[in-house]
Amino acid sequence: MKIIRNYKIWMLAALITFIVTSCDKDYLDITPTDRVSDVSILSDSTLFKAYVINRYLGVRLTNKEGEGTPPGFGRGFEYGMWSSLTDESIYNNDDDTWLIQQGLLSPENTGIAGTFWKRSYRSIREVNYALNHIEDVEMSAAGKKLLKAELRFIRAFRYQDLIRNYGEVVLVGDNVPELGDDFTQGSFFKRSPIADGINYVVSELDAIAPDLPREHSTSWELGRATKGAALALKSRLLLYAASPLYTGGTSDAQKWDEAAKAAQDVIDMGLYSLYPDYGELFLEEGATSETIFARYYNLSALHTHLEIANGPNGYGGWGGNLPLQNLVDDYEMADGSTFSWDNPAMAQAPYQNRDPRFYETILYNGASYRGREVETFVPGGLDSKDGPDNWNTSKTGYYLKKFINEDLPIRNPWGVAGTQNWIYFRYAEILLNYAEAKNEASGPDQSVYDAINSIRTRAGMPLLPEGLDQNQMRARIRHERRIELAFEEHRYYDVRRWKIAEQTENEAAQGISITKSDSGDFTYNIITALEGKRFEEQHYWLPIPREEILASDNKLEQNPYY
Length: 562
Hints:
Structural class: mainly alpha
């Protein structure tokens, strides 16, 4: 499905950058040529609307080489995905990810995780600027009401990123700090308790949800906030709020019940449903029945070239985000049984008769890809160290398939716009949120079974067995999240909020070595793909970058143990 692009509004949005207007200009009167002035924005409703829309695109920070990178795939961190900070994958050529997986994260050395604080607060300031000046713009009351709701949604989304990465955050209200302000007074750098942060964001979402459209009537509006997006964000935050990391390890049935009700509110809209094809869900150019909120890359010139970044070396790819054996082994057999290397039949043919989502997510030895089978075996495998560009050979024996469009080129992709969307919220997550919260609140009733079984049925997997107790259902739900949401930036936060990262992230980062005999038989050996994987208690939260602490004149309190 193609999207009709409204070039006027999006090109205007791309032109508008962050504006600083507080300085007196009596000593220097220069008209910038690389940005649109605040006077122009506030005197032109079209420009002001473009300014608001550009807030969805995010703050485009640069990497250490000065090259700009988009959020979404890579999240502004070059080509390394957030999955490569977990037990889902490792990044083939580091890309500032290994130090985090090896437990070397520090305020002075944040790797790819260092952009959240600055990017989020810059975006919040931009939103507050617009909210504080929207009444100066000539626009209909209905138009202002909608834009205000959208701006508050964007701000809430930014606070979500801050809270789930740092825990306690600074709630700045509607303030717009200006050059020359005295930051030594008041509570400008005072971090609020986690509960206060979540309550603030949830109250914002409750206030704006009625003012947001149920759905968009034109394709060029895709990517802007809706009522469903606000309710989905609320569902996620309340699920986090009820989780052990956020409650100090206690289980509060009321909090879980509130999270279940928040997910039910999205379900009760009757607007979303599971898309029939799991693999194609991530390749559709427009919205699907499952998409609640997404970044649509074909409405922007910015895109990470997923195919060359993650493709096997034998095809000219760079390897990129490499699935770990830890994840591969967690995919069930097609009949719902657990895979085990101790089972001779499974060990002899480890990639046969697995959960269908495995084949849509991971490229393995023998997988069909771009007209031939992937060859990670040695000797002689085209996608092994014996193949071309062997410095890009997978360290795990696997390559990423999820999100990858085989119709797009691997070699020389520059100038070819990618079409994959980054889905922030989809209906399957809401069903999983509901099932987890409901099970924790009152146990596995039929509604919990229905939510999980609908996801498994879409995937082509058998239903859950009847008679599970609460603990057994908890394990099943956590497993389903691991498989269904793989590589979608959930695993990192899930193992932390469940307080199990000290177990999962201290397991060896495993891969597979496959040897092919003269007779064509394969021998499989588990290997360590990345040495020194380590997780310690302080890593449940990110450290605030040292430069931010120093910029506050040490008034900003650092997270514990850093």
